[in-house]
Amino acid sequence: MAIELFRNEHHACLMFTDLVEEDGQAVQANQFLIVDNGTGAVIDPGGNLAFNDLFLTMSQHFPPNKLSWLIASHADPDIIASLDRWLTSTQAKLVISRIWERFAPHFTKAGKTVDRVIGVPDAGARLPLGKSELWLLPAHFMHSEGNFHFYDPVSKILFTGDLGVSMMSGKDASKPVTDLKAHIPLMEGFHRRYMVSNKILRLWARMARQLDISMLVPQHGAPIKGRQAINDFFDWIETLMCGVDLFDDRAYQLPVAYIDPVAGRTGAALRVA
C-alpha cells in the first residue's frame, strides 16, 4: 500500500512500508516514489524481497518505464540489491555516492550499469526532477562511508536513510511520530551501534538545522513529523554518544565462543580435553 506523504497538483511523495514480509528473517524497510510534473524517482528501491510488490504497487501511481532516477543513500543490500531488476525493467539511472559507484555493478549482470550510474561527489549536488530538484546532502558515516540524504524543497521532506531509524513493523511505520520522547527507546539501540560518532551527528545537525523541514523520513520505521519533534530529534542526536565513542580495547580481543554448525548459532567456548 502506498502512503501519501505529500501531494499537490504537480508533485507527489509516496512511501511504501509493508513490502517485506514481517517474518523475522529480514528487517523492515521503506521505499519512496517522488514525482514532479511527470518525472519520477525512486529513493532506496530496496532488495529483491521488495521488488515485485514495489514495482506492481508503484505502477498504480506512476509508470515505471518513465522513471528517470534510482536514488540510493548508500550501497547496503536493503537499499539496492534489486538493482539488476530495476535496470532491466526501466531506463532509470542509478544515483549513488562516488565511493560506491564501482561497487554497485556487483548487484547486476556484467555490463548492465554501463552509462547508467551517476557518482555523486562527497560535497553533494542538486538533481533535476521535473520542474523541481532534489538536494543530495552529505551524510557520510551515518552509517556508510559514502552516504547521502535527500531533501525535497517542494514537500520540505528530508529523506534520512539510516538516520532516524526506529525498529518496528511496516504497519506501525506508516504512522508519523510527533512525540519524540516516547519514540526514543525504539531508536536508541540502533543509533548507538550504527552511527559512527557523536562528532558526525553534530556536524550533520548543524547543516540540517538550516533547512525548512516538515518531516524526517528514514529508510526503516516511522517518519518524524512537526517542528517540535524534529527539533527534539536534533537535540537528541547532538548529545548521543555512539559508534567509536563507545568502544575501547575490550572490544578487540581474540574470540573464545564457537559457532555450533547444527544449531546455527554461537555457543559457549569450545572445551578441548
How would you portray this structure in words?
The protein is of the alpha/beta class. The protein has a single domain (about 1-270), classed as Ribonuclease Z/Hydroxyacylglutathione hydrolase-like (Metallo-beta-lactamase, Chain A, 4-Layer Sandwich). The protein has helices at about 50-60, 75-80, 85-90, 170-175, 180-185, 190-195, 200-210, 225-240, and strands spanning about 1-5, 10-15, 30-35, 40-45, 65-70, 95, 115-120, 125-130, 130-140, 150, 155-160, 215, 225, 255-260, 265-270. A seven-stranded mixed sheet has the order 1-2-3-4-5-6-7. A hairpin with a 4-residue loop joins β10 and β11 (about 155-160). α7 (about 200-210) runs antiparallel to α8 (about 225-240). The longest helix has 12 residues, at about 50-60.
Q: Oligomer, anyone?
A: single chain
Give me the CATH superfamily. Ribonuclease Z/Hydroxyacylglutathione hydrolase-like
**How many beta strands in the DSSP annotation?**
15
Q: Give the spatial strand order of the biggest sheet.
A: 1-2-3-4-5-6-7
Average pLDDT score: 93
Q: How many discrete structural domains?
A: 1
- Roughly how many Å is the radius of gyration? 19 Å
CATH architecture: 4-Layer Sandwich
Spans with pLDDT under 50 lasting ≥5 residues?
269-273
Structural class determined from secondary elements: alpha/beta
- Which CATH C-level class is it? Alpha Beta
Beta-strand portion reads 25-35%
The biggest beta sheet reads: 7 strands, mixed
Head-to-tail CA distance between termini: 58 Å
CATH-derived topology: Metallo-beta-lactamase, Chain A
What spatial form do the alpha-carbon principal axes imply? globular
In helices, the fraction of residues equals: 10-25%
With helices defined by DSSP (H or I, 4 residues minimum), what is the helix count?
8
